[in-house]
Amino acid sequence: LPAKGDGGPGTGGLTAVETARAKVNLALHVTGQRADGYHLLDSLVVFPDIGDVVSISRETQGLTVTGPYAHALGGGGEDDNLVVRAAKLLAEATGRDPRSISLALEKILPVASGIGGGSADAAATLRLLRREWALDISDATVQQLALQLGADVPMCLLSEPARVSGIGENIELIRNMPACGILLVNPGVGVSTPEVFRALRRRDNPPLPGIPVAGFAEFDALLGWLSQTRNDLEPAATGLAPEIAEVLSMLEGQEEAAFARMSGSGATCFALTRHRAEAEELAGRIAASHPHWWAAAGKLS
Ligand code: C5P
């Protein structure tokens, strides 16, 4: 991935670039439901160096989508794309003309897959245009706009390890996370987030156990904490997409995988490895044994 804000050499007509990192819920507890139907969550999220790329294009008009999952965004037309919605919302809030800018999205993350791809794209667009337009607005204002675009957009705006609660609007950054490897695996089935929430049996689960003030410097400390947590959406998602169970049992059978779980509302699952090289090795093996699955390796945070 290019560094944040680095147009860099070889970007052609692209002069401003933002990475839209995948959001991974290492733990996700459903603790309640609001009167408007949205669910209250308590979640530990991380943002590995695996993601989409949003950039400003000087050569094209409107939004151009490329990349392995560009086809999956076809359906609703350009106005439904979260990149376009984010650009319009920020432009309206700050008196800019959204048509003055053309954007390019390289869609690398699978769509509707529990790793916040669309939310990450929207957040990257907000970061990119705030810088491009040199907007004099507060972080709090941008966070409020982000929340209007989706519950996961504020956390994606920060893209740092955090404990999030409410529907995603309360964000407490976590100081330390171990420099371990992470592998993301998606079996190629999309899962609808509202359907997963509707299929829940319980909405009153206990919150996450406490997180040490210093965070988790050691891999084993993180593993110990994770063993006391769950993803409460996993049983409901697995009921809708049984392939998730297949991914999890495959990951659990790998020697390098110290821990495996589903992220968000699925179907993407993750495995943690002590070192990044092990995640890369595993991704290579899975690409060979399951050519229809998506597998990507990175660093935890
Ligand atoms: O916020 P976002 O648009 O990503 O959420 C998609 C849908 O998922 C919501 O319309 C809602 O049905 C469900 N959802 C929920 N509780 C949350 C987040 C999402 O019920 N905390």
From TrEMBL:
Keyword Repeat tagged: no
Entries under InterPro entries matching the protein: GHMP_kinase_C_dom, GHMP_kinase_C_sf, GHMP_kinase_N_dom, IspE, Ribosomal_Su5_D2-typ_SF, Ribsml_uS5_D2-typ_fold_subgr
Pathway note: Isoprenoid biosynthesis; isopentenyl diphosphate biosynthesis via DXP pathway; isopentenyl diphosphate from 1-deoxy-D-xylulose 5-phosphate: step 3/6
Report keywords, A-Z. ATP-binding, Isoprene biosynthesis, Kinase, Nucleotide-binding, Transferase
Q: Does the keyword Oxidoreductase apply?
A: no
User: What residues form the membrane-spanning segments?
Assistant: none
Q: Where is the GHMP kinase C-terminal domain?
A: 217-288
Might you give the EC number(s) for this enzyme? 2.7.1.148
Q: How far does the signal peptide extend, from start to end residue?
A: none
Q: Which one Pfam family would you cite for this protein?
A: GHMP_kinases_C
Its UniProt entry gives the catalysed reaction(s) as: 4-CDP-2-C-methyl-D-erythritol + ATP = 4-CDP-2-C-methyl-D-erythritol 2-phosphate + ADP + H(+)
Biological process (GO) annotations? isopentenyl diphosphate biosynthetic process, methylerythritol 4-phosphate pathway; terpenoid biosynthetic process
Q: What protein name is recorded for this chain?
A: 4-diphosphocytidyl-2-C-methyl-D-erythritol kinase
Species, as recorded = Stappia sediminis
